[in-house]
C-alpha cells in the first residue's frame, strides 16, 4: 500500500523591509535653497554675495533627487514626482545663472533684455507647473499646500521682475520675503514628518485642509 508524503509546511514569509520616507529630505533640501534665494532677494545681505547657486546644486538638487527617488520605491507618486522634478529645476537654474546667462547677456546672443525675457518666461512656466502641484498639495495638509502656493507666487514675481523691470527692488524684495516664508513652510512640513513620531505626542502642528485625507 502506497504511503502519501506529508507536505512540509511552507516557510514563513520574511517581513517586508521598512523603508523610510524621502519626503522630509526633499522638503528640507528645497527649504535650504529657497531660503538662500529669499534672503538674497530680500537684500538681508549683499545681493551679490548670495549663495543660491552652490546651495541649489549641492544641497537642493542632490537632496531632492535622493528624496524623490526614495519615494518612487515607497509608491508615493506625488512625493516622488515633486522631488525629482524640482531637483531638475535646481540643477538647471544654477547652470543658467552661472554659465549660460552671462554669455547671453553680454550681447553675444540676445543681450540683457533678451536674457531677462527668456529667463522670466522660464520662471512663469514653472509657476504654472507648480500651480498643478498646489492643487495636489491641498489634499495633503495645510503647511504643504501653503509651501506650494507661496512657491507659485515666488516664481510669478521673479518672472515678472525679469521680464518687465529687472532693476525693480520692490518686486525683487517682495519675492525674497515670500520665498523666506515659503522656505519656513517647507521646513515646517519636514520637521513635522520627522519629529512628530519621536515623542509620545506630535510636537509640530500639521493642520489639515478640507480636502486632506
Can you give keywords for this protein?
single chain; 213 residues; mainly alpha; Serine Threonine Protein Phosphatase 5, Tetratricopeptide repeat; 0% strand
How would you characterize the overall build of this protein?
The protein has 213 residues and is an all-alpha fold. It has one domain (23-194): Alpha Horseshoe (Serine Threonine Protein Phosphatase 5, Tetratricopeptide repeat). Helices cover 71% and strands 0% of the residues. The protein has 6 helices and no strands. The radius of gyration is 22 Å and the shape is globular.
Strand and helix map with partners:
Blueprint: H1 23-41, H2 52-74, H3 77-108, H4 111-137, H5 142-164, H6 169-195
Task: Give a short overview.
With 213 residues, this protein is mainly α.
Number of helices, counting only DSSP H or I runs of 4 residues or more: 6
Q: What is the C-level CATH assignment?
A: Mainly Alpha
Fraction of residues in β-strands? under 5%
Question: Uncertain segments of ≥5 residues (pLDDT<50)?
Answer: none
Amino acid at each position: 500500500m502506497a504511503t502519501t508524503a506529508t507536505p512540509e509546511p511552507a516557510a514563513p514569509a520574511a517581513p517586508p523591509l521598512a523603508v523610510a520616507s524621502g519626503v522630509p529630505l526633499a522638503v528640507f533640501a528645497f527649504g535650504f535653497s529657497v531660503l538662500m534665494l529669499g534672503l538674497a532677494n530680500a537684500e538681508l545681505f549683499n545681493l551679490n554675495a548670495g549663495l543660491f547657486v552652490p546651495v541649489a546644486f549641492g544641497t537642493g538638487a542632490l537632496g531632492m533627487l535622493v528624496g524623490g527617488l526614495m519615494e518612487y520605491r515607497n509608491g508615493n507618486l506625488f512625493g516622488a514626482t515633486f522631488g525629482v522634478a524640482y531637483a531638475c529645476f535646481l540643477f538647471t537654474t544654477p547652470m543658467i545663472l552661472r554659465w549660460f546667462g552671462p554669455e547671453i547677456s553680454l550681447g553675444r546672443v540676445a543681450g540683457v533684455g533678451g536674457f531677462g525675457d527668456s529667463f522670466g518666461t522660464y520662471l512663469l512656466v514653472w509657476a504654472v507647473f507648480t500651480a498643478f502641484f498646489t492643487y495636489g498639495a491641498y489634499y495633503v495638509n495645510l503647511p504643504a499646500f501653503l509651501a506650494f502656493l507661496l512657491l507659485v507666487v515666488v516664481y510669478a514675481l521673479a518672472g515678472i521682475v525679469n521680464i518687465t523691470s529687472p532693476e525693480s527692488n520692490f518686486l525683487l524684495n517682495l519675492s525674497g520675503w515670500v520665498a523666506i516664508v515659503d522656505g519656513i513652510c517647507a521646513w515646517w512640513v519636514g520637521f513635522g514628518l520627522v519629529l512628530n513620531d519621536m515623542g509620545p505626542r506630535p510636537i509640530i502642528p500639521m493642520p489639515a485642509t478640507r480636502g486632506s485625507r
